[in-house]
Amino acid sequence: MSTNSSSNSGAARLLADVGGTNARFAWQASRGAAITDVQILPCADYASIADAIAAYLQRIGRSAPPACAIAIANPIVGDQVKMTNHHWSFSISALKANFGFELLRMLNDFTALALALPDLKAEELRQVGGGAARPHAPIALIGAGTGLGVSGLLPNGHGGWVPLEGEGGHITLAGCTPREQAVLDIIGARYGHMSAERACCGQGLVDIHLALQQLDGVATPTPLEAAAITAGALERDEPRCSETIDLFCAFLGTAAGNLALTLGAHGGVYIGGGIVPRLGARFDASPFRERMENKGRFKDYLAAMPALVILAKQSPALFGAARAIEHF
Predict the structure, then answer these.
(1) Does 121-311 carry CATH code 3.40.367.20?
(2) Is 100 annotated as a binding residue?
(3) Which of 41, 81, 91, 316 pairs as cysteine with 116 (C-beta 3.0–4.6 A)?
C-alpha cells in the first residue's frame, strides 16, 4: 500500500524492516544512495511502531524525512495494520500524519525481500542442490523466523519483475511420514489450524520438540527455547533436538516444494529468514532438499530448481523497501 505519489522519490527516506521480534531501521539520503545508519531495535522495547521510529530518529540525530518505506511482517489490507506475531497495531494514515511524511509506502516484509533478490551478490547466497537458475523465470521466496514469510517474483515481460503479496506461510501443512503427521496432529490440536508457519518458525521448533517428547512418552513434556534446541542439535547432537531440526527442515522443504510447483520457480527457490542461515551445513545435509523434491511425478521437474540460502549480512528487505519507493 502507498500513500501519496512518488514525486519525492529522490528525497531522503527512512527505511524499515519490521519483524515480529526486531525492527531494523536505516537511512538513505536520496534515491540510489548508500543505505546507512542501520540499527536494530527490539520490538518488545516499544509500545508502538511510532515510538520505535521516534527512538531511531533520536538515536541518529535526524528529523523525519519526506519519504518513508516500511516492510512489515504482516498483510497490508486497508489503512489499519495489526501485526500477526506482535502486538503493534496502527493506522497507516495516522502514522504518516504523525511524522509528516509526504510519502509513506507500506508493504509486506517478504514482498520487500523479493524486490531485493535480483541485486543479491553471489557471495551472499549458498546453493543447496539443483541446477542453474533460468534467466527471466519465476522466482520463489520462503523464509522462517518469528513467522514464515512467503513471496516471489514473476517476470513482467519487459525485463523487470512483479513481486507477490500474499500470506503463503499460512497454507495447511501435512506430514509425509506417520511420525511427521503425528507431530503435526499434536501441534494442530493446540492451535486449531496446522499451517506451515506453526511448524516452520522459532515457536515451531519449540512445539515440534514438545510434540516429540509427548510421542516418546515423556511424562511431563518441558518446553525448550528455540536457541537451546538449535544448540543441542548443532553442538551436542542431542537426539531429540536433532530430530526437531530435521523435522523443521523437512516441513520447510515440503512448503518450499509446494511453492516452487505453484510458481514454476525455475529462477530459483530463495530461502530467507533468520533460522536457516544459523543452521549452516546442517541445513544442507537435512531432509529439506529431498522433501522439496518429493512430489511424485514432478520430482525431476523440481530437482532442476536451485535452492539458494540468503546469507546477506545487511537486511536485503531494506533495499527492497528503498526499491518500493520508486517501483512498487
Answers:
(1) yes
(2) no
(3) 316
